[in-house]
Amino acid sequence: MSHQPATGAAPPGELAAGAGRGRRVALAMSAPALCLSLALAAMWPGLFTGHDTIVGTTGDPSLSIWALQWMPFALGHHLNPLVTDYLHYPTGANLMWNSSILFPSLVLTPVTVLCGPIVSYNVLTLLSMWLSGWCAFLAVRRYSRHWTSAAMGGLLYQFSPFVASQITVHAQIFVAVFPPLLVLFLDEILVRQRRRAWLIGGLLGLATAAQLLTGTELLAISVVMCIPALITLAVIFRARLRERLGYTLRAAAAALVVFAVLAGYPLYFLLLGPQLVSGALQGDVFVARPASFVIPSALQLIGGPTTIHDSSAYIGIPLLILAIAVLVWLRRRPAVVAAAVTLACAMVLALGAHLWIQGSATGIRLPWLIATKLPMLNSLLPARLMVAGYLALAVIVAIFLDSVLEASGRRRIVGLAVVAVAMIPLIPTLPIQSSRLDIPTFFTGGSAQRLPATGSVLMTPYGKNFVDYPPELWEAMSGFAFKTQLGIVYTPSPDGNLIGPDPDALGQELKALGDLDKPAPSSLSPAVRAAYLTDLRAHDVTTVIVGPSAGAAQVERLMTELLGSPGYSTGGVTVWYGVGAVTG
Known about the structure:
Helix content is 54%, strand content 8%. The protein is an alpha+beta fold. The termini are far apart.
């Protein structure tokens, strides 16, 4: 007797297909969920804790917070968001040459408007770590057969020493989504060629334009570090280059058109706009030492007291041995060879132009010396090139883990143990650091709104103390109620590039009072007084604000002597109004 399916019931084959699709959807969603949950767990103590706490340190994040507030302000007041005179007044600064994170600021404008720039900054840190890990998973998944392997690779990149060192400081760098996206696009354009060329090329152009408006340094690093992999693949697949050339050229043309349309104007500002800087911004400053690759720092859970000034290059001996072993074992896999070449190049270039041993540079020249002679590239910090190295390691580890998961019995156990031994040393110190920002209520309680709409405000601290008490942060938190000559921005100067305010006579005195604990003079000679008043007039200073810092008392004495009366104490600062009447 045959059994017929009930009326309206799906055939068993369709039920199985539906269940299969459901599992695939669940599996696809589990990767972003895993990356997001781990990012939340790592950052939770610093997230959403109020208006004055951020994930990370004080100092450099203040300019990113400023940039997040600047975008909605500029758009709302019909100002060009690529340039500003609200910092380094009156000449201003070209934001394409500074860490202005224009694209993330645009995306997060609703959050900034509703919740303020500090909450928006914390959201940016969370989204950056999450999306960096997820995009790395998607890139690695192209070369791994198992979801677990790709997830391990994505997490290696997400919690790599590079991200762990940058997530607390540099927003233009820790938004590290572009490198894995570039791998995805290049793999599709050069190898698989399954999608329409104009679509993939257009998406590549869109992603490249977005990265240009996020951080030019990471864009340049990504372009430089994809060259070794491309050369390696061209050699391996040299017999197939001609048949893939047509698709590649069509995709490249689409990418260039989209990039030109979206990034043409910002690129003009970068190359030909006002307040251009030239030469190396920081030079061959932050470089890796050979020991940096094998000795953990304070960033790692198993690390010691060694501090990291900018970027970590730590890999660890177990992971290095594993990478070499996988290369020898799977040397016929193009992905392994390309990843190994990329890793090796990243390590060599991260050493800088000259080899450093025990804290001092030797006379041994290295390949990065060539880059120091080239425009744009001479501003890259060598240690940061390791972002490509960690992505390459993610591919190598994932491919090895594929083989481990497909083994059985003792081989699988040994393989999993090897992966654990290699990966555990990279686990960062958790939770990720958070910091409370010192923001006087003068700038958040409405008092700043009563400042004159014209001219500028001279604020202190003026020197290195602005790392802990950043004036541009106070300006942003006031809703851009005033302009100032201060700000951690690069601008041109007769002696080369300048970061921070002009070093005029008054500025040098303020730095000495704040940084060197120099006592304020009991009186000013007519010549010195005239020089200081001239400096105030040059920046059209209408108000002086002395904020909290180590040298605040000395600065107050100087300003009282210079302006002829004591300032008005309010909202955690001391204010001198009507400065224009004194300077004439």
